[in-house]
């Protein structure tokens, strides 16, 4: 009985340590790739270019274009996408969480696939949201850029993880 | 109610609270950051003049600003640089929102357990605040020191830490601290239940 409880009690510690170590390793790896072709492909080709194209498709009058220096530019707003604004942290948090949580390989693969799709959609939605806020409601910029849009998608990823981990435990 | 729904409601409430309270919280916490940053600055040729909430670069933002001075060396008599460290008030309130929402929302068996979490949470929260917003405000002091030492484009250890925090590291630290504290206090409660069952 005592052994069972001790094992259960160490689980959050083990999860926490694995999670933070895995996140730190992934972060260090991505930081090391800054400026490389891989990083440009991920940030510019996979995230910023589709975001700009989607803005242009939804609101053609915006004449949005992705300029050098990672700026989503339109006549009414120039959104400068800096380090930490691209949404990469959502992918790192997702991978670290799924690696740290005990689950079968199949469940992990399912979580990674669905989670990455969600993180990708949230990254693009966040950047589009920032563009439209800057263009049409700059008064709301402070609250949304400083708190809601950085934290909201991460919270949604956390809820996805909670849902996935609950199903993984149930399946086990 | 499903846990995802409960936590979703808690997160939405916390975010709404954060939007309304970010600036007052930053004003309230500014003296604590000043205290912590003065402690961190000791041992460096840095002087913290003031930390206060000021209008940001854009007319739509408010920032917590650190105004400080940097000398070339500890023994130098005069300041060689004046710096301003900036953190948006929305970012300032991230740590209290995430940490306290998780800690207080975590299921507890007894009121006593919740009280232990609250008591343990206060010092842990103060450490987190120092590690996150406190260190973010100090970044320009370290950069100015490196520039004065001859490095025109410095990337200091403070830069690496700041980048880590901005890339999700702050959220990770807040979550891990809350989860470990909640799990730690939960373990005592479970052991007590076992002792009662064994008796």
Keyphrases for this structure?
A: 172 residues; mainly alpha; three-stranded antiparallel sheet; 3 strands; B: 199 residues; alpha+beta; 5 helices; 68% helix; disordered C terminus
Task: Summarize the structure in words.
The complex is a heterodimer of chains A (172) and B (199). With 172 residues, chain A is mainly alpha-helical. Chain A is built from five helices and three strands. Chain A has one domain. Chain A is 75% helix and 6% strand. Chain A has a three-stranded antiparallel beta sheet with strand order 1-2-3, covered by helices on one side. Chain B has 199 residues and is an alpha+beta fold. Helices cover 68% and strands 14% of the residues of chain B. Chain B has five helices and three strands. The C terminus of chain B is likely disordered. At the A-B interface, helix 1, helix 3 and helix 5 of A face helix 1, helix 2, helix 3 and helix 5 of B.
| Strand ordering within the main sheet of chain A | 1-2-3
Order of helices and strands of chain B: HEEEHHHH
Q: What is the residue-mean pLDDT of chain B, rounded to a whole number?
A: 89
Low-confidence stretches of chain B: 188-197
Q: SS-based structural class of chain B?
A: alpha+beta
Biggest sheet layout of chain B: 3 strands, antiparallel
Mean pLDDT of chain A: 88
How many whole angstroms does the radius of gyration of chain B measure? 20 Å
**CA-based shape of chain B:** elongated
Question: What is the H-and-E element order of chain A?
Answer: HHEEEHHH
- Biggest chain contact: A-B, 44 and 44 residues
The total number of structural domains of chain A is 1
What structural class should be given to the helix and strand makeup of chain A?
A: mainly alpha
Structure summary, number of beta strands of chain B: 3
Give the low-pLDDT segments of chain A. 1-10
In quaternary terms, these chains amount to heterodimer
In helices, the fraction of residues of chain B equals 55-70%
Biggest beta sheet summary of chain A: 3 strands, antiparallel
Strand content of chain B: 5-15%
| Structure annotation, total helices of chain B | 5
Q: What's the total number of strands of chain A?
A: 3
């Amino acid at each position: 009985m005592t052994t069972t409880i001790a094992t259960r009690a160490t689980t959050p510690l083990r999860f926490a340590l694995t999670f933070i170590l895995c996140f730190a390793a992934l972060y260090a790896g991505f930081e090391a790739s800054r400026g490389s072709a891989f990083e440009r492909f991920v940030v510019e080709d996979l995230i910023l270019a589709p975001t700009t194209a989607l803005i242009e498709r939804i609101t053609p009058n915006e004449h949005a274009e992705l300029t050098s220096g990672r700026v989503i530019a339109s006549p009414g707003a120039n959104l400068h996408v800096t380090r930490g604004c691209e949404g990469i942290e959502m992918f790192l948090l997702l991978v670290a969480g799924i690696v740290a949580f005990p689950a079968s390989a199949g469940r992990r693969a399912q979580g990674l696939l669905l989670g990455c799709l969600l993180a990708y959609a949230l990254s693009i939605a966040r950047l589009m949201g920032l563009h439209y806020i800057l263009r049409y409601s700059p008064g709301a910029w402070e609250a949304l850029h400083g708190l809601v849009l950085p934290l909201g998608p991460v919270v949604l990823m956390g809820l996805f993880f909670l849902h996935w981990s609950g199903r993984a435990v149930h399946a086990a | 109610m499903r846990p995802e729904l409960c936590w979703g409601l808690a997160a939405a409430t916390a975010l709404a609270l954060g939007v309304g309270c970010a600036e007052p919280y930053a004003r309230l916490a500014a003296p604590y950051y000043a205290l912590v940053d003065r402690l961190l600055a000791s041992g460096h040729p840095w002087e913290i003049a003031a930390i206060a909430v000021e209008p940001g670069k854009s007319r739509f933002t408010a920032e917590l600003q650190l105004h400080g001075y940097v000398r070339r060396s500890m023994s130098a008599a005069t300041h060689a640089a004046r710096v301003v460290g900036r953190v948006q008030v929305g970012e300032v309130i991230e740590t209290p929102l995430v940490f306290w929402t998780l800690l207080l929302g975590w299921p507890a068996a007894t009121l006593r357990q919740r009280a232990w979490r609250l008591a343990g949470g206060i010092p842990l929260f103060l450490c987190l605040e120092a590690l996150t917003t406190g260190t973010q405000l100090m970044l320009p002091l370290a950069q100015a020191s490196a520039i004065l030492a001859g490095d025109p484009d410095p990337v200091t250890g403070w830069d690496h830490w700041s980048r880590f925090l901005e890339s999700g590291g702050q959220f990770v630290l807040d979550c891990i601290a809350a989860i470990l504290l909640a799990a730690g206090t939960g373990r005592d409660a479970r052991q007590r239940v076992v002792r009662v069952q064994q008796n």
